[in-house]
Amino acid sequence: MDMKQEKLADNYSQNVASKYSRMQNNRIKIDISPFQTIKKLGIKDKTILDFGCGDGSYSKKFIEERAKKVIGIDNSSSMIQIAKVKHSDPSIEYFKQDGAKLLLPKNSFDLVFASYVLQNFKNATVPLKQIYKVLKQGGYLVAIVPITLLKPKNEKLANTIIKICIEKKITINVYIKTDKELQSNIKKAGFSIEKVKKEDNPLAEVEGKYKSKIKAYKSNIYVAQKPAKEGIYHH
Ligand SMILES: C[S@@+](CC[C@H](N)C(=O)[O-])C[C@H]1O[C@@H](n2cnc3c(N)ncnc32)[C@H](O)[C@@H]1O
C-alpha cells in the first residue's frame, strides 16, 4: 500500500464514520436508482458481497429483499463497528477487510455491490480483480462510482487526489476517476460491461485547488458480468 492509499484509508475514522452513517438515514431513501438496478438483476435467494459496505445500510436492504446471505466488508474498523450495531441480521456477516486483498472464497457470490468505493483506489483494476475472483461465473458486479468530468486539457489529472464535501458535512479525499479509465479497469479485470447508467451526484461537491479544472462531478452505475464460462487463457 503506498502512502497516498494509506491517507485515503484513514478517511473513515470514528468521527467521519458516525457522521457518514447519520447522513445515510436520508441518502438511502433517495438513492433509489442503484437499488432499482440491482433489483432488476434479482436479489431473492442471492449470496451478495457488499464491498466497502460502510454502515451496512445496503447489506440490510438486501436481506429485507430476501437475499439468502450478505457479506459486508470494509477496511474501516469504525464503519464495521457501526454496521454491526446498526444493521445487524443473522444472515449478514461484517468483516474488516481491505478490498485490495479479499480474504473470501473464490467463485462464491452471485452479486457484488460496490457503492461509492472504487474512487478510494488509485488503480481500480486491483479491487476489481479481487471482485472478479470471488464472483461466481455469470455473476454480476454493480458499481456506483463518482465520475469527474475534467475540463479540456486536464485529462492528466486522472487519479489525482481531490477533496470532496458530502452534504456540506464531511470532507474526504478521493481519487479523480474518469469513465474512460473505469471502463478500461473493469475490462482489464476480466468483466464484460453490460450497462453504464449516468446519474447526478447532487450531494457531493469538489473543494480545493482542483475545483477550477473540473467541469462536473457525477456518478456512473456500472453493471458488469463475469463470463458464464471463462476462456482457457483467462485468469
Ligand atoms: C463513501 S463510503 C460508501 C459506503 C457504502 N458503500 C455506501 O454506499 O453508503 C466508502 C466506503 O469505502 C470504504 N473503503 C475505502 N477504502 C477501502 C478499501 N481499501 N477496502 C475496503 N473498503 C474501503 C470506506 O471505509 C467507506 O466505508
Write the SSE topology.
Elements: H1 3-9, H2 14-30, H3 32-41, E1 47-51, H4 57-64, E2 69-74, H5 77-86, E3 92-96, E4 109-115, H6 125-134, E5 135-150, E6 161-166, E7 170-175, H7 179-188, E8 192-200, E9 204-207, E10 214-225
Parallel strand pairs: 1-2, 1-4, 2-3, 4-5
Antiparallel strand pairs: 5-10, 6-7, 6-9, 8-10
This protein binds S-adenosylmethionine (SAM).
Number of E-type strands = 10
How many helical stretches?
Answer: 7
CATH architecture verdict: 3-Layer(aba) Sandwich
Reported for the largest beta sheet, the result is: 7 strands, mixed
Structure in words:
Helix 2 packs across helix 5. With 235 residues, this protein is an alpha/beta fold. It is globular, with a radius of gyration of 17 Å. The strands form two sheets. Strands 3-2-1-4-5-10-8 form a seven-stranded mixed beta sheet. The N terminus is likely disordered. It is built from seven helices and ten strands. The chain has a single domain, classed as Vaccinia Virus protein VP39 (Rossmann fold, 3-Layer(aba) Sandwich). S-adenosylmethionine (SAM) binds next to loops. The site of S-adenosylmethionine (SAM) has 18 residues, from loops.
